[in-house]
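PROTEIN ENTRY
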Amino acid sequence: MTSETDAARELRSARWFQAPGLGGVQHRAYLKSEGITQAAFDGRPVIGIANSWSELVNCNLHFRALAQAVKRGVLQAGGLPLEFPTISLGEVFMKPTTMLFRNLMAMDIEESLRANPLDAAVLLVGCDKTIPAALMGATSVDLPTIVVTGGPTQPGFFCGRQIGGATDLWHYTDEFRGGRMSAADYAELESALVPSTGHCAEMGTASTMSALTEALGLALPGSAAVPAVDARRMAFGESAGRRAVEMAREGLRPSHVLTPEAFDNAITLLMALGGSTNAVVHLLALAGRAGVALPLARFDEISRRTPMIVNVRPSGEHLVEQLFHAGGVPAVLKELRPLLHWDSPTVTGRTLGENVDAARIADSTVIGTLDKPFQPEGGIVVLQGNLAPRGAVLKRSAASPSLMHHRGRAVVFEDIDDLAARVDDDDLDITSESVMILKNAGPQGAPGMPEWGQLPIPKKLLRLGVSDLVRVSDARMSGTSFGTVILHVSPESAIGGPLGLVEDGDEIELDVDSRRLQILVEERTLSGRAARFHPPESKYRRGYGKLFLDHVMQADEGCDFDFLRKLPDEPFQTDPIGLVGGAIAF
């Protein structure tokens, strides 16, 4: 693989540690104060290990040990590992949503990598927003970078059945709310739900983004699906540490790997997995950081040509641990070969095709084939129409086939508080034919676009045996969720998008085959409502929240900040402003 051969011979860290005069003395002295000798960094690549470990994030709780494995690999290859902390985003605890802070973590990663004497980076990430955040930040700096993800938690067991920590929780919660599960059984479920560290055991956002990182070429092949508690997770960390040193010497950067073809590969895998809708937003944001033109429509184009060949919840039956034992992401990619750019470069120094050529499918009940897929098209579709002029998404693979062509009257909730107050009211005017609408749940309106899109089925309908309704919002939903849930409606309601004009009783039409989402109201009526529209009061007047509201883009653009996207023909700024020759030579 061709890389920056001339630039790679001069280590970036040398401008700190081999500089003459006061600056060089100061840099070396403070490194030696850590007990590190001159021999440890003289002419050796310095590898930064960005660790998102946190006791607030169960998904990443094993990262202290994982960091040690990476350090072993770095030392084996003749580099100097320097670990540093980064913000850690845990979807369960952080309110209103980790998505509000994804861009903040990306900024943290970006500026930490750029400002410090590092020749390459290893990103330790797990819980779902930590993966795209770290990728976005590292891509903007364009230092040699390799990703090590945390792996899925062990499956739980409840009433003799293997369960995942989220998909099955949503199912059993509906059973409990509908009066078909006792309080004692629900309490027992709580204790069985998450038996170990690691991210969600289903094909949620964390597992999806881990897999897509392999397809993008930024992680070692076979690493995505290894369970968090499996010793092979540590072995992959060690291997990544060794490879990071080699990449530093080669000058192999994200900009060499993140090509338009790499994004096509990732989207193809996303559709074949029946993966998380959140990946759409994250790939759009990452493409913006890489300077790759990626319209939302490209996702639907690839979905139409890509069958779903992985049988994992919530779109299928199994968990990610079974996917690992069935051959993992490499086996899926190899089966997708006719649909992929086989010669795309990767962090291994080899092509995607070379990485997975020896892979095989070990269990055909988990990984199907192009000839015998589990569903004929990809898991996610993109909808448009007068209710979503710039698009919306639906995970068709986890939706009800009977609702793919549906027309119903809207039941509108103005915001999440209105939903919480009224959804279980027995006087709520709603039937199994209704379309539930949630407003003000998007990037600006919520703010942060939380995972509120899987609106709960009202209790009065659950008691009647209704298990799904068409639900429409400008929110996201967990990658572990299921149902006929239309998400990411753009433009969002809070900025005057058509979703904000829907009123109770309006007829809504969904036609998935035609990719159409319509409000069946006369244009003159909608124009009158638009003239009377007033945006909701801003949720933040200061701090990071205000920065977010002032600069966040819409869902069809990835919800990144407008000032962080790579400008056309803009060079990557790898070194900090003011680093001239490494130091001032007094």
Q: What stands out?
A: The CA atoms of residues 288 and 565 lie 5 Å apart. Residues 231-250 form the longest helix (20 residues).
